[in-house]
Structure formats: structure tokens, C-alpha cells
Amino acid sequence: METTLSHYFGYETFRPGQKEIISKIIDHRNVLGVLPTGGGKSICYQVPGLMLDGTTIVISPLISLMKDQVDQLNAAGINAAYLNSSMTQKQQKAVEQELLRGEVQFLYVAPERFDNGYFVNLLQQLTIPLVAFDEAHCISKWGHDFRPSYQEVIHKVFALPQDFAIVALTATATTEVQKDIMQRLNINKNDEIKTSTKRRNLVFKVNPTYQRQKFVLDYVKEHSDVAGIIYCSTRKQVEELHEAFQDQNIQSTIYHAGLSNKEREQAQNDFVYDRVRVVVATNAFGMGIDKSNVRYVIHYNMPGDLESYYQEAGRAGRDGLNSDCILLFSERDIGLHQYFISVSKADDDYKDKMGEKLTKMIQYTKTKKCLEATLVHYFEPNEKLEECQQCSNCVHENKTYDMTDEAKMIISCIARMKQQESYSVIIQVLRGETSDYIKYCDYDQLSTHGLMKDYTTSDLSHLIDELRFKGYLNEHDEILTCDASVKKLLNANAAVFTTPFKRKSKEKVSINTVEGVDKALFDELKSVRQQLSEQLEIAPVSIFSDYTLEEFAKRKPESKQDMIAIDGVGSYKLKHYCPKFLETIQSYKAQI
Ligand code: ADP
Ligand code: MG
Ligand code: ZN
Q1: What is the pTM of this model?
Q2: Domains in the chain, start-ordered, CATH in brackets?
Q3: Is the pLDDT of residue 143 over 80?
């Protein structure tokens, strides 16, 4: 087992849970593995698949993501293939021939493939030691990403004549979802392997800023040389933020379900191949994506439940290096999810469940307790809780921000209106917009017209909400009026502070300064990797992860022997990729 791991993947030791899962598969048992994102779930079916004769079938939820997995295996000298509807007849035939000759060790397919009788017939002729269900939470209706096709495929798999083991793998499953998966896939109670959900390299932060856009722009500028994902809840918001990036000359790409397949594929490739650093996306992006060096995931809006949040945030730092998971939110996000639940066509039971999940998510944004512990408690209620000492609650990073100036501007605007006006009119006036109504009322003549033109609509509504909660403004049917208490404020006898908001972090996040790593060499090695990647059409991190490059830059290996001792260097990679890196290290050393 260890030999297979080090020969093909270059790792000396298994991560928690991997060995137990693999042993059970080799013993021909059906297994459920619950390992955190980045915990190394792929190895759990890849190592036994290499040890057993025949073709391991991997069921994966999205067609567009199989290519990465297959490329990664090919990059390690392993014959893997996928079959999907985006391929030409000729390509499909070629794969079928290889399958029939018994040359393919891993075949990736989407569950829908099993609807095709021809395909099922082909499978019947193969030797199949193992069927893997990746992202197995998609099987359960109680999961956060239920796909009916994932459930329907199960009986078709069981109907195959071969006698294979089944492994189901997932990162984010509540106890209920785990039970459901095990029952459906015929997995014994004793054959569930679960490791801690904790991922110590992720630094969780909650930031109730009212200036989300500014926060994100500042953050991305400060971290311009590393990769990150920004999740928004709507396509519109994705596009708006992307535009804001373009205005500031920040390179970014977008991804949402409204784009064509081709556009989405392009966006994903640009990101995976390190051609752009930032992707702004809806939650359609990222499942199974193979990019281990994502250094931050920012949620521009609050997701509807903690499973989705943890799954999406967990796409950061899969290489084990420190990464930020930041949740921005405003009270308005809550209303949106409540609305989604209320209009959903699901039965009442299901709606209740979603409502409970939403409540837990809201609690996460409000808690003063350790964020990591809060997450762990959600997934593992019996786990002993410890403070992580690094999340924004543990380090008390969130400062309140003096919004007295903004408060005065808003209040004086409201006071100058010739009649009582609604939220949206006031925001439009402050932003300096001109509608027929504004012109009709001569509001464009007011001194407050355009007074806050640098603030976005959502910044302003957030500020107004703060003033309402603090009692300075009253609202009735969307109409805003000033409370008597504003007098004190205007006379400069009081200050207004936002609920905790982090304006600027004092210490820069130390995601680029790992101890002992020669940064200049690391950058050179990264560009070697980039060149190789373009040349071989393999994603950079499939060649070597950032972790492995950091080890190179730390230890400065002089020979192939030195290199093979480093995590992530297997014999295939040693032969094919290492020479270039060795050369670079040598000439770097010669210079200093
Ligand atoms: P996930 O559990 O999220 O599917 P992956 O299978 O994509 O995670 O693995 C995440 C990263 O961890 C990959 O870069 C993989 O090569 C690496 N990895 C997996 N197993 C080990 C191991 N035993 N030692 C070191 N790195 C590993
Ligand atoms: Mg995975
Ligand atoms: Zn903490």
C-alpha cells in the first residue's frame, strides 16, 4: 500500500483515514469515507484501484470537472480516461477500445452515463474491482447538493454482474446524510471511516462590513499574487463585482450557470492554469475542482446553510498551506434565503429542515465564540471543543468603525427632503442618480444630491439599516423618518459606531511568508511550473503542488535522491518533471 502511494504519488505517509479506507476496500468491503476537503479523498480510491486488477469506475457529479482528475492521473503516469457527452464519437470509440483491452485503470463518468444502455453493456464486459462515488453527499436528499441522478444510478450499479467493492466519499455530511448514504449503498455500520472535520490551515473570519465591495477590492489588491475565489449569491452580483474589478484593472474571470459551457470551461481552465488569479462565481463553481493552491475564499453573501459554506470555503488551502475563509454578510442575505425557502415547492418537512439549517448559518455569523469550533460542533456534535486561536473571533480582530460622518450625511439628506421618502429614493439622491421622480421633486438641486456617490447601493442600505437598528431612523412601510435623537448626533455630541467591522487588518495575513522558504527561488520555480504547464497542457498544481515547490525552495535539493525524499515527488514525476526544477535550483544557487 505504502509502495503504491510513494511510487505514483510521491507521498511517504497516509493522511488520517486513508489507510483504513483503503484496507477495507482491499478486503472487499463497501466503505463510506468522510474526510475534510483537501483531506485526500481521491487517494482513497486511486491507491486501491492501482493495486487491484481491472478498471475502477469513478462516479463524479460534473462532466466539466473530470478532465482535471484524469489529467492529474496521467501526469503521474497512470492510464485514466473519462467518457462524457462533450466528446466526439471518435474519441469515445478510442476510449472504449482501450477499456476493452483492459488498459484503463480509472474510468470517470457522470451518473447520467448509466442511462445509456450501450455504456452499461460495455461495462458488463470489463473487470471492475471497485466503484467509487465521489462527492457522495449528492446521493442524499438531506444533503446540500442533492442530485436525483446520483440516487438513480445506484440500482444500475448494483445490477452489474461483477463483484466489486463500493466506496463513497464526501467531505461535508451531517450525521443524517451519512446514515442515508450508508443505507442506500449497503455500507455496514462498522465500515464508516470518519476523520475530524477540522482543517487547521484554514483561518475563518466573519466580517459584517457594510462596504463589501471595497473590502473585497482592497483584499484582492493586497493578495494579488495568490489565487482566490469570491462567491456571490446571484449572477447579477457576480457580474457587478467582476465589473468593479475591471474598473480597477484587477484581472478576474467569472463563472455562473448563465454562461455557455464553453465560457465556463474557459473560466475554469484560466483559473486552474494560473492564468487569472481571481474567479468571481456563484456556487455553480468549484465542486471537485482540482486546484490545491487557492489561498482565500471570500463569501460576498451568506450561503443558506453551513454545509454549503464549509464545502465552498474548504476549497481554500487544499495543499495544507495557510488560507483565509472570509464570510461577508448583511442582514439582507437572510431575507433572500427565507424567501427561497418560502417559494420552494418542497414539502413542509423539507422546508422546516432548510429553515433550521438557515438558523444555524445565521448563528455562525453572529456568534462571539470560536468560528472553527462552531463549525466542528455542527458536523461533529460529540467532538471536544477547543478554541482555534486564529479565527477572527479568537483574535478579536473585528473592530467597530466610526460611521458618524456617514450618519450625518444620511440624516441631513433625509431632513432636506420636501416630503417623507422611501429607502430607495434616499439612496438614489445620496448616490447622485437622476430619475424623472427626482427631477420632478427637484431633489437633484439639493446639496446632498450625490453627497455619497462613492458608496454602492448595498453599502448605503447597510448603513441605513445600522441607523435604524440604533434608533436614529424610523421606518414605516419603507418610508424613512428621523428620530428625535438625531439632534444630539448632529450637534456632534455623539458618535455612531458600526457593529464590528474590520477596516484594515493591522498585520498582513502571513500567507506568503512561510518560514525558511526562499521566496525568490519559490517564484522562479513557480514560473518553471507555469511553462511546463502550458507546454504539457497540465494544470500547474498537477505537476507539483505549492507545498512541494515550497519544500524545494526550502531544502534546495541537489540531486534526484534529494528530490524523491520530498513529499509530492513520485517516480514518474521525478523522471519527467524534476530535471527542469533541479536545473533551476542549481543555477539559482550558483548566483548567490
Ligand atoms: P479531497 O479530499 O478534497 O478530494 P484531494 O483528493 O483532491 O482532496 O487531495 C487534496 C490534496 O492532498 C492533493 O493535492 C493530494 O495530492 C494531496 N494528498 C492526498 N493524500 C496525501 C498524502 N497521503 N500525503 C500528502 N498529500 C496528499
Ligand atoms: Mg475530491
Ligand atoms: Zn477560533
Answers
A1: 0.71
A2: 2-194 (3.40.50.300), 202-387 (3.40.50.300), 401-498 (1.10.10.10), 519-591 (1.10.150.80)
A3: no
